[in-house]
Design a protein that fits this description.
DgoD-like, magnesium ion binding, Mandelate racemase/muconate lactonizing enzyme family protein, Enolase-like_N, 371 residues, single chain, lyase, binds magnesium ion, TIM Barrel, 13 helices
Length: 371
């Protein structure tokens, strides 16, 4: 079943976040940009994927358009495992983490969407699971840098049904403000690699009595597994993984005794199959899995489909913000702190073409198999 066309499409969605916009890699983050990958096969079926993402989109899109799409056109879309072996190998000299892996991730997700559509089965069924109904999500707050805004948004998220709240802050004050504003909710803290191991140990000791559900990526750089492991004895469960390169990156984290909770990210790690392999590796090592999924399209839906196929359902990460609209509505939003799977085959739903057209940023880049 030949791949006959690959398109990259960017949608840019206005949103509000209950406070001033934060920044991402030095840029004001005032629109949610999604890099969609649309893959067509010779039978006319279309699959959708999402590649990471946010301010990295121009780089990831260039990796797909210039190198990955030409490599994949004409290949067998049903040979997902074979393509995993050959395509990342063909581009491994260009980086084992970053735009080429992100780009492949988006294409691979689209291939699973196609596989499900062709089989008439949802992805979780292909992975051996069944629809569990509503699954618990956690509200992942963006950075406010102001304990009052943290408190206000935590109270609002708890009022909307979330029982688990994650902060992107770096202070004990912010954690206390969240706990006061949302009594009974569990609080997680993600500091995005803010600290050296020495600083991280001091901060972990200061946070040790706050009852955190987990402390996420406390150490810079993220590949410093020894530095991360040096915090374990302080007793706060440690999570990491969104910046880890593939299965073998997670193996190094586990072997170093660096994490309690693994956070693989489907749009970054290489797609669905590498995500599932990684989850199995972590579970075999007795490590909890909490996927990284601050996404708003096929990346989030693929994460939910993978979660549905697990016996122990992980918490699904939903960014705390309000989008004006989304082509994958309503499936990319939580209700009462829960998410549900879309009902169709593959990922379960296609984007709404009108919303795609309204919020599309520029024309799709399309490449076709030459006859
Ligand atoms: Mg994080």
């Amino acid at each position: 079943m030949q791949i006959t066309a690959i398109e990259t499409v960017v949608v840019s969605l206005p949103f509000t976040m209950g406070g001033p916009y934060s920044s991402f890699a030095g840029q004001v983050w005032d629109h949610l940009d999604i890099l969609l990958v649309r893959v067509e096969t010779e039978d006319g079926l279309v699959g959708w994927g999402e590649a990471f993402g946010h301010v990295a989109i121009p780089a990831t899109r260039a990796a797909i358009d210039s190198v990955l799409a030409p490599l994949l056109l004409g290949r067998d879309a049903t040979d997902i495992e074979g393509l995993w072996r050959r395509i990342p190998h063909a581009v491994h000299l260009l980086g084992r983490n970053g735009p080429f892996v992100y780009g492949f991730s988006g294409i691979e997700i689209a291939l699973w969407d196609l596989a499900g559509k062709r089989a008439g089965q949802p992805l979780h069924r292909l992975l051996g699971g069944r629809d569990p109904g509503p699954m618990p999500a956690y509200a992942s707050l963006l950075n406010y840098g102001d304990p009052e805004l943290v408190a206000r948004n935590c109270a609002e998220a708890a009022a909307r049904g979330y029982r688990s709240l994650k902060l992107h802050e770096t202070t004990v004050e912010a954690v206390r403000a969240a706990a006061r504003a949302a009594p009974g909710a569990e609080i997680m803290l993600d500091v995005n690699c803010a600290w050296s191991p020495v600083e991280a140990r001091a901060m972990a000791r200061a946070l040790a009595g706050e009852g955190l559900r987990w402390l996420e990526e406390p150490v810079w750089p993220p590949e410093d597994t020894t530095g991360l492991a040096s915090l374990r004895e302080i007793g706060i469960p440690l999570s990491a993984g969104e910046n880890v390169a593939g299965l073998h990156g997670f193996r190094r984290l586990i072997e170093a005794g660096a994490i309690d909770i693994a956070q693989p990210s489907v749009t970054k790690i290489g797609g669905v199959a590498e995500m599932v392999r990684t989850i199995h590796l972590c579970q075999a090592a007795g490590i909890e899995v909490a996927p990284h999924s601050p996404y708003f399209g096929p990346g989030l839906i693929a994460t939910m489909q993978i979660a549905a196929a697990l016996v122990e359902k992980p918490l699904i990460e939903i960014l705390w913000l309000d989008m004006e609209a989304n082509p994958f509505d309503p499936w990319v939003r939580a209700e009462g702190g829960m998410v549900r799977l879309p009902p169709g085959p593959g990922l379960g739903c296609d984007p709404d073409p009108e919303v795609l057209a309204r919020y599309g940023r520029g024309a799709p880049n399309r490449q076709e198999l030459k006859a």
